[in-house]
Amino acid sequence: MMLLHGGGGDGTTWDDLVWAFAERRTVYVPDLRGMGRSERTGPYSMTIMRDAVLLLLDRLALDRVVLVGHSLGGFAAMLAAQAAPHRVTALVLEECPPPVPLGITIPAEVDDSAPYYDREIRPSILRDLNTPDPAWWADLDTITAPTLVLAGGPASFLPQDMIAAVADRVPAGRLVTIEAGHRIHRDAPDEFVAAVKSFLVAVDGAPAPHHG
Predict the structure, then answer these.
(1) Per-residue pLDDT of the chain (212 residues; tens, 9 = 90+)
(2) Residues 196 and 148 sit within 8 Å (Cβ to Cβ)
(3) Residues 108/198, Cβ–Cβ less than 8 Å
(4) Beta-strand (E) ranges in 17-56?
(5) Residue 137 is part of a domain; what is its CATH number?
(6) Residue 28 gets which letter from DSSP?
(7) pTM
(8) How far is Cα 187 from Cα 103, in angstroms, rounded to an integer?
(9) What is the Rg, in whole angstroms, of the alpha carbon atoms belonging to the chain?
(10) Can you give the residue ranges of the AB hydrolase-1 domain (predicted)?
């Protein structure tokens, strides 16, 4: 299992939750490109983030993995599941921005007060979210992994109707709303863990997919 954090954060966002999943799985908690302890190696884009996740899977020799991603990390996980569906056994998208134009304001100047965050990431990533590749939406139906889509409800800044539409478009998608806003795993950790563990129990008990 690999837990992917959101933009502007690092892997420590999962520190209080890793134990809940480590009972049954080896859990990897990387820092995404340009954040935390990772090198500041721009340029940045969602496809570059996706490729970095897939390269990490290669380096760790993880042929099949459960991907759990929050926000930006969820978007990278979603794209990874599109690009390499055979490598993802299950997918959890927590408040993942839907791959439709979002109209988020791109700041003229980026706050660099956080030393663990490359200040070039935010404007680059927001441009991708505001003008997404149409293939990202079209290819949602190529995701073969059972997928849990977690929505944060009215307190989230993301369009909840489009998050629901993502769950509808993924063939094995399931939507669960936990009304905690954008950071469900931080603000409603018990509910987050319960939802993910229940989902994974169901996945573990399902017959293995047949690839003819």
Answers:
(1) 999 999 878 899 999 999 999 988 999 999 988 887 877 777 889 999 999 999 999 999 999 999 999 999 999 999 999 999 999 999 999 999 999 999 887 655 555 545 567 777 888 888 999 999 999 999 999 999 999 999 999 999 999 999 999 999 999 999 999 999 999 999 999 999 999 999 999 988 765 544 33
(2) yes
(3) no
(4) none
(5) 3.40.50.1820
(6) B
(7) 0.91
(8) 26
(9) 16
(10) 2-96
Distance, in Å, from the CA atom of 168 to the CA atom of 148, rounded to the nearest integer, reads 11
Please measure the distance between the N-terminal and C-terminal CA atoms of the chain and give it in whole angstroms: 26
Cα angle 204, 208, 210; round to 5: 160
**Is 210 among the domain residues?**
no
Partnered with residue 94 across adjacent β-strands are 70, 150
Residue with the two structure tokens 């954040």: 35
Residue 212 lies in a domain: no
Looking at the structure of the chain, the number of domains it has is: 1
Q: Give the domain range for residue 122.
A: 2-205
Does residue 158 contact residue 95 with C-beta atoms inside 8 Å?
A: yes
The number of residues in the chain equals: 212
Distance from C-alpha of 132 to C-alpha of 146, rounded to nearest angstrom: 24
Question: What is the rounded CA–CA span in Å between residue 67 and residue 54?
Answer: 11
Q: Is residue 37 part of a domain?
A: yes
Torsion from C-alpha of 42, 46, 49, 54, nearest 10 degrees: -140
Asked if 142 contacts 85 with a C-beta cutoff of 8 angstroms, the reply is yes
Nearest CA among 108, 19, 28 for reference residue 68: 28
Q: Are 36 and 3 in contact (CB under 8 A)?
A: no
